[in-house]
Amino acid sequence: MIGIIQGRLSPPIEGFQECPKDWQREFDLLDELNLSHIDWVVTKNSFNNNPIFFEDLSGCLINSICADNLVDECIFGELESNLAPICNAAIKNNVKNITIPLLEDSSVEDEKNRNIFIESMLPIADLYSDLNFSFEAELEAEKLLKIVDLRDNFFVTYDTGNITSCGLDHKEYINLVKHKIDNVHLKDRTYDAQTVEPLTGDTDFKLIFKALKSINYNNIYTLQTARREPGDEVETISDHKKIFEEMLND
Predict the structure, then answer these.
(1) What is the pLDDT of residue 178?
(2) Using CA atoms, how far apart are residues 80 and 120, in angstroms rounded to an integer?
(3) What is the CA angle 148-151-154, rounded to 5?
């Protein structure tokens, strides 16, 4: 099953990765493009007015709410106030999964920050035990496991581009976190962290898909690929989806 991150089917009028004003159109396009789901996005800019908080989206094909508002130092001091509203919105809209980014300003590479995050995250995970929390991290696998192995409702969103630009070994990483991967974000990046068109960067997708096949991964994939010119979104995603389908079926 291949889905898409919210916004990639719309011109970036509201921002590069924001909830588009005409968000309904993206759901209408899922059938046309044979996509299985959308990973909904909440950012700092949309935290006070995102439709996920006040619309009834329970009938929409939303796999996860990506809490991109947490790419901020608030994750180390105000986690509950910035995450609980998203958890409540997920429950209201029958969304099972919350994706939490641990990168850039929310990186937990530093052990002190990692411990602060864990101390704040565990009570939330216990309070919302019916939800799954999937961590998208730029972090060595051993350190990430020290987080995700703490709870049964903790998982890993494996971002192919992030792992590439971190210089980490995909095969080794996948084998270490194999029991926790519940979503794979498909993105090609160079080693210097530039997101580029699929198969033009440094991400070894053949190795990745071989490793995922070896662990019998049968969960979802989510396109988070490079944009082309505004207005070309549908053609872009159609092309990118075809590339990955051919590799997955090889």
Answers:
(1) 97
(2) 7
(3) 50
Helix (H) / strand (E) element for 233: namely helix 233-248
State how beta strands 195-196 and 188-189 pair. antiparallel
Identify the bridge partners of residue 195 per DSSP, sorted by sequence position: 189
Place of tokens 């980490």: 168
Give the chain's domain count.
1
The continuous run of DSSP H or E covering 86 comes out as helix 79-92
How do residues 199-216 score in pLDDT, each as one tens digit? 999 999 999 999 999 999
* 136 contact partners, CB below 8 Å, separation of at least 6: 66, 99, 100, 101, 102, 103, 156, 157, 159, 162, 185
Residue 250 has what pLDDT? 79
Q: What is residue 15's predicted lDDT score, i.e. its pLDDT?
A: 81
Conformational region of residue 42, where left means phi above 0, alpha means psi within -120 to 50, and beta covers everything else: beta
CATH number at residue 185: 3.20.20.150
pLDDT tens for 70-85 read 999 999 999 999 999 9
Q: Which residues contact 108 (CB under 8 A, 6 or more apart)?
A: 102, 114, 117, 137, 139, 143, 147
Please state, in angstroms and rounded to a whole number, the distance separating the CA atoms of residues 242 and 237: 8
For the entire predicted model, the pTM comes to 0.96
Residue-range definition of the domain harbouring residue 158: 2-248
> Can you state the percent helix, strand and coil of the chain, rounding each to 5?
40, 20, 40
Distance of CA 208 to the CA centre of its chain: 17
